[in-house]
Amino acid sequence: MSALDAVLSARALMAAPTPLKGDCGRLCGGACCAGDAQTGMLLFPGEERLYARCAFARVVPARFSLGGAPGRLLVCQGRCPREERPLACRFFPLFLRFTPDGGTRVMLDRRSTGVCPLAGYGMEALAPGFVQAAREAYDKLLGDTECRAFLAGLDEEFGF
Ligand code: SF4
Ligand code: SF4
Question: Which of 14, 28, 79, 80 is the best mutation target for the ligand 1 pocket, counting ligand atoms within 8 Å of the beta carbon and taking the most?
Answer without folding.
Answer: 28
